[in-house]
User: What shape does this take?
Amino acid sequence: MKNLVVLSGAGISAESGIKTFRDAGGLWEGHDIMEVASFEGFTKNPLLVLDFYNQRRRQLHMVQPNDAHRILAGLERYFKVTVITQNVDDLHERAGSTDIIHLHGELFKARSLEDDTLVYEWKEDLFIGTQNENGHQLRPHIVWFGEAVPEMDRAIEKVKKADILLIIGTSLQVYPAAGLIDYAESAQQLFYLDQNPAVMHNLNKPIEIIAEKASAGMRLLHDRLKSL
Assistant: This one.
């Protein structure tokens, strides 16, 4: 089976009702991003940050995967599919995808503030005083700005082995994730599906751009991908 590697971003989850990372004003749900997505912001106001992610977590309980998630999951019948996602939701998992790399963490997990190797399934609210068995405060299992991206090396290896690379629902503006396309050394077909696709510069191989929302674009691509 050919290796189909998918790079997914906020655009694929937007159709399920999850707001994209930042709006036109550079804000996330009305907050300056560095207030709620950096360790410095957490240190300055942990109550604000915990409440912010509690609200995101509650919202995630209320939404469902959309056609784009489900079509990608169904492609596992024809390809060895790896989904590398910038999203922190679990909609790919719920749709049925089985090989998923979360570059920026997972909303339904928490980890120790003292030891980032201690990670826990977590679907409820986090509060100041929510601790693990060692008495460590728990924080969202989210990769904040300025923090390392632990899954990056594994993602690079997957992209290097891709026969087909599909980029879906991302502006290709957030690094290092946006740089993954540069590792698609073996890919014979590249597709970029986004409602407002970014301008591609210095790409050393052709890429087909499909300027559609995620679900509509995946419906268009589905049969074509199966024929490859």
